[in-house]
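Worked example 2:
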Amino acid sequence: MNKNDIMKKLGDLLSETKTGVLAWINKEGYPEMRWMSPCLMPYNKECTYAVTLEDFPKVNDLKTNDKIQWLIQNKALTEVINIYGKVNIIDDALFKSEVLENLSSNLVAIWKLEDDSEFVVLETIIEEVVYYDTMKGIKERINFREE
């Protein structure tokens, strides 16, 4: 499996589930996890994107430590993808609009939280992906920095 193959798998899983778990380290040094709605953008094949409110604690945590992990799985739990990477926090109006348009149907929960808060985009620059097919016993590791 290569980068293109794994990104196709990732796109298929995100189309099915529309969610993933983002893990990061908080300011006290403990792991934190949240369900979020990541997406892929057609012009960048080595990143995932998600939106969050800029005043959520995770944004400050990610400014201190940008290393993250995503857990994406299908509904049957037979395919699992772990993404390791670094996050860029993007506060560009045009780019936020593009990402929101891509994610709008998946963001039911965030719209109910705060009407007047500003969004930021969390861009994950993928460094490594581990793919598991639990029914076939397959585990593949794809290093995005080496290819």
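The mean pLDDT is 91. The chain is about 25% helix and 45% strand.
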